[in-house]
Amino acid sequence: MVGQSPLGPGGDRPVLLEPFVHQVGGHTSMLSYDEHTVCKPLVWQELSFYESLPLAMRQFTPQYKGIVSVHLKKDSLGNLALLASPGLGQPEGCGRRDSAGDAAVALWHRRRWMSSTEHGTARRSHSQATRACRDSCPGKVLLRTDLQHHSDSLLEDANGNQPERKSYNPWGLHCHRQHLNRISSKHSENKLHQFLLLENVVSKYSFPCILDLKMGTRQHGDDASEEKKARHMRKCEQSTSASLGVRICGMQVYQADTGHFLCKDKYFGRRLSPEGFRQALRQFLCSGNQLRTELLEPIILRLKALLAVIRKQSSYRFYSSSLLIIYDGQEHKDSTAALDHHLPFPKAHGTNPSRIDVRMIDFAHTTFRGSKSDPAPYDGPDHGYIFGLENLIKILQNFSEGK
């Protein structure tokens, strides 16, 4: 059966896609479909990964929710927007789903509008951030055809410092502008583009602190040109990807003392030495008032669980994929109030008082035996990815031991 996309709240009514205000890394535009769902341009290799996802890995990846058709829309003033059309049929070849997958999407669709009170705090927080994004970047500026760049980029000042942000991370807006510019220059308004629908893994957090880590010692896919291959190899050699098997691709950290988000982008991460990486990782775990030491054990346990799963995935190579580490910047005085009853994975030791999450994302260049791109299969697990995970765990354990 051809993969189907869920319907919006108004049946076939188009859904206006907005920039995802908590995108901290990557170059592909992430957009908000609804409060608990994001979408991104479809890449066949990534779709193949989600449709063949091993059961053991599902707790470490966003839930795949289907495919939706998207088109560009320009109003009388020349403002551009992207509209999702849930009711449109998918083109031939959009991936096959088994009955269990269809049932899962149907169940998600039924639940999606079931409760207006579920995750109320997170919903209000996200709406506030979206409004702040709109206030800071009015629609006519953000969506105008010429896509002018304003001062909300993550450009550094003369001293190499990057600014704090009150309510949103500007990286997502930067990616969105580039995406609109690209598709508006190449395609007509009626051209349909296919997007993946994925779980918004930060929707349950009031002030999501997010670390985007590019994992592994190799970043280019098997299909990369010689020029692209050389470029990615150079980036790895000149960054902590070679020495540690992991580099920072972006982050945002809520600073409780100022009420702002501290944001860093991929250019910041590329310049870090191994010691600089350690300092940045410590900064990610600092609320502005103090180091969030209570986060260390849950994150380490979660990473060890992921490491055990990756070691068993023979033939998989997660080239250019990222790992998100997420926690809530809102510190809870009473640990029982922080228990998260909606996590899609078993809690370590039965509790998760710090509300942390660890998720793998971005699988456009992931390859495995049986992949639809039909590459030459690899044997054994992804040792570059394992190397990065082991070093990450080791650094966090040193923090835990006061080193």
UniProtKB/TrEMBL annotation:
One of its GO terms (biological process) is inositol phosphate biosynthetic process. InterPro entries: IPK, IPK_sf. It comes from the Eukaryota. Signal peptide: none annotated. This is Kinase. The keyword Kinase applies. Its EC number is 2.7.-.-. It holds the Pfam family IPK. One of its GO terms (molecular function) is inositol hexakisphosphate kinase activity. It comes from Smithornis capensis.
